[in-house]
């Protein structure tokens, strides 16, 4: 798995209001990289250098430590899924998932760690990595 992971892709942070959250991070120097909806909820990706934050409305907002997930960028999503399955990691998805984010979409899967924290593995955010 180590050779397949190329770095941190993004951090998922729940918010109450997408516009208010985006305004706050833009004051810190972030720029809006991509906006969409997922299951009817607004989603905004904010970028500062190589750091990407995904903000979206979620019930965990306001809880201390409310980072919903970390997403690792992988070179080969199929190989990462196969390896994670073979390692008997706690797989949340029965197959590789797809969301129509960015120009080409994103393929990903999720596992949980020992403290039930979510960790996504994803591929195809090239548009955001320019």
Structural key phrases:
130 residues; 2,3-Dihydroxybiphenyl 1,2-Dioxygenase, domain 1; single chain; alpha+beta; 9 strands; 45% strand
Word description of this protein:
By secondary structure, the chain is α+β, with helices and mostly antiparallel strands. It has one domain: Roll (2,3-Dihydroxybiphenyl 1,2-Dioxygenase, domain 1). Helices cover 15% and strands 45% of the residues. The chain contains 2 helices and 9 strands. The chain has helices spanning 18-27, 77-86, and strands spanning 5-15, 31-38, 41-48, 51-57, 69-74, 90-91, 97-99, 106-112, 118-123. Strands 1, 2, 3, 4, 5, 6, 7, 8 and 9 form a 9-stranded mixed sheet that branches.
CATH T-level topology: 2,3-Dihydroxybiphenyl 1,2-Dioxygenase, domain 1
Poorly predicted parts = none
Distance between the termini: 25 Å
**Rg value:** 15 Å
Question: What is the structural class?
Answer: alpha+beta
pLDDT averaged over residues: 81
CATH H-level superfamily: 2,3-Dihydroxybiphenyl 1,2-Dioxygenase, domain 1
So what's the CATH class?
Alpha Beta
Order of helices and strands: EHEEEEHEEEE
Q: How many DSSP H or I helices? A: 2
Strand count, sense and closure of the main sheet?
9 strands, mixed
Strand content: 35-45%
Roughly what percent helix? Answer: 10-25%
Total strands: the figure is 9
Quickly give the CATH architecture. Roll
Query: What is the approximate shape?
Result: globular
Count of discrete structural domains: 1
